[in-house]
Amino acid sequence: MAVKAISEYTAEPKDKVENFNGMQLLYICWHKHLMFCAPFALLVSPNMTFPELWETQIKPAIAPHPDSAKIAVEKIQWELNGKAFEPNQDTSLLELGIDHKSMLTMATPGLNGLYDAGF
Amino acid sequence: MTATKKLNLKQKYQYLTRDMDWEPSYQKKSDIFPQEDFEGIKIVDWDGWEDPFRLTMDAYWKYQAEKEKKLYAIFDAFAQNNGHQNISDGRYVNSLKLFLSGVSPLEYAAFQGYAKVGRQFSGAGARVACQMQAIDELRHSQTQQHAMSHYNKHFNGLHDAPLMHDRVWFLSVPKSFFDDARSAGPFEFLTAISFSFEYVLTNLLFVPFMSGAAYNGDMATVTFGFSAQSDEARHMTLGLEIIKFLLEQHEDNVPIVQKWIDKWFWRGFRLLSLVSMMMDYMLPNKVMSWQEAWEVYYEQSGGALFKDLERYGIRPPKYQDVANAAKEHISHQLWSTFYQYGQATNFHTWIPKKEELDWLAEKYPNSFDKYYRPRFEHWDALQKKGERFYNPTLPQLCQVCQVPVLFTETDDPTAFSHRDTVYKEERYHFCSEACCEIFDNEPEKYIQAWLPVHQIYQGNCGGPDLPSVLSDYYHFNLGEDNLDFSGSPDEKRWNEIKGIKPLDKDDVA
Ligand SMILES: [Fe+2]
Ligand SMILES: [Fe+2]
Ligand SMILES: [Zn+2]
């Protein structure tokens, strides 16, 4: 719907990818691990590979959680923007379809957080 | 002919409003009041505007001046007697830091908002009412700052509240709430602030903070509360009058107003999540739990209100049930968030003491022991090992309410209620269905949101690293204003005041 206004009302999105100096935003959510109070907002290069993303960004972000040491990477169930997703090893994030402001969610069956509370 | 006869109040009011008004002869009314029509609200007869308080300027000045005199006498006495030494506990001051940077600037924003819309109505009664409220709100902003300024001499984090309000990540929640209202048309502004905020939700802001002050020995803030009480009573009554006026004027107004109520109820509810954590976690002496407050001030009062409005064709706010169900969770989720981002706050955070955990368990029998106590005990154990948990990443924020995406699904407290949508090939993320719907109704408005996390990543908040954003852009004194209460200079000073010996000998300088 249009904004009701006294004249024609249009606007520029404030977070277009060109405002991020060659980088892009990526959100990561680890299901059932509410020790991290909200999904992470990361700044990543669209040219990095998935293994690089895992090693340099995701792993350090989830490191404080005791479950993180027990993750079998190949068993992670990934979703990209709500659809099942198979990360390919050698192509860039952008080629994998991980574009600006995408959200990746990871489920780790068998690892469902602490205290039976999804923590 | 009766020049010497004294006017009574009613006549004075009549002269001040209706009789100072006139029909323009050489300008079109629509040119003088250009904002009156574009929202689609139809006003058939402005004389239908009933002013609940026929207050005139001279009476208003006199009344407010008397209150002011008493108020400042107490502030002076409070300062001279070192009133800050009589508060319940040093941690209490942190709720004042939240209030001064989160709420007092909203009073100022309300002043600006009412001053602006007070110019926009062709009905004189509405113009006068808005101007009066504008002055009230300016006074609130000033007197709150004066009430709390004494604490700034003795505690950290109170030194630059207006700047922090404009810049700090979580303070964009209250700031963007009022920016949203002030950039709307004049009738939406009144529905948002006078009705949804002042009438429906204000008790959930005001009572917790002012009773909180009373329960925790803060005479300065309590006295401010009393001094503002009669103003707030007027604002509430006005809010109800406005909504009834809009609904009575034309049936076409009903769906427009309903949509605004749906939106502003939800916006207000999200804003109040900050108050929920203040009540349950930041007050050393608790007044009541957030859940109890929500039940009394929203479920009961709001229930009666919306029953009353039914005859106009108005139903309760669309996402009311989600808000009701969330009462058992939000304060715990908020405090978990601020605890783990305590390196980036202008107030201190801490793990509740054992008695406090027990109080929470008693107040929240369905949720606390199952979902929330374990996390605080987990973090407490880490802290005792010297590994106090801070989250080193930045959180995803909701595009509309700007709170981190931290809330959970109604039927599953272990899953975030995240939503997203794509608008003009750009993806947007939300904390809830309700925020997503607010976006979908006016996407062009919210795509402009100044989201603090994204602004940091764009390099617009200094940096490059987080500590320099916090110190240079937010004006935090790192190691003094932020981090855990335990080990803070505030705690040390409080212990000195109370003659409490530090547990650790090394703490003695
Ligand atoms: Fe106010
Ligand atoms: Fe008010
Ligand atoms: Zn939201």
Written overview of the protein:
The complex is a heterodimer of chains A (119) and B (509). Chain A has one helix at residues 50-62; strands spanning 24-30, 40-44, 77-80, 83-85, 102-107. Chain A is globular, with a radius of gyration of 17 Å. In chain A, strand 3 (77-80) and strand 4 form a beta hairpin. Chain A is of the alpha+beta class and 119 residues long. By secondary structure, chain B is mainly alpha-helical. Chain B has one domain: Ribonucleotide Reductase, subunit A. Helix content of chain B is 59%, strand content 4%. In chain B, helix 3 runs parallel beside helix 6 (124-152), helix 3 (57-80) packs antiparallel against helix 11 and helix 10 packs parallel to helix 12 (253-282). One fe (ii) ion (FE2) is lined by residues 107, 110, 137, 140 of chain B.
- CATH architecture assignment name of chain B: Orthogonal Bundle
- CATH homologous superfamily annotation of chain B: Ribonucleotide Reductase, subunit A
Largest interface, counted by CB within 8 Å of the partner chain's CB: A-B, 48 and 55 residues
Gross geometry of chain A: globular
Kindly provide the radius of gyration of chain B, computed on alpha-carbon positions and rounded to a whole number of angstroms. Answer: 24 Å
Note the gap between the termini of chain A: 39 Å
Major beta sheet summary of chain A: 5 strands, mixed
Q: How many separate helices of chain A?
A: 1
Characteristic terms for this protein:
heterodimer, A: 119 residues, 21% strand, B: 509 residues, mainly alpha, Ribonucleotide Reductase, subunit A, 22 helices, 59% helix, globular, binds fe (ii) ion, binds zinc ion
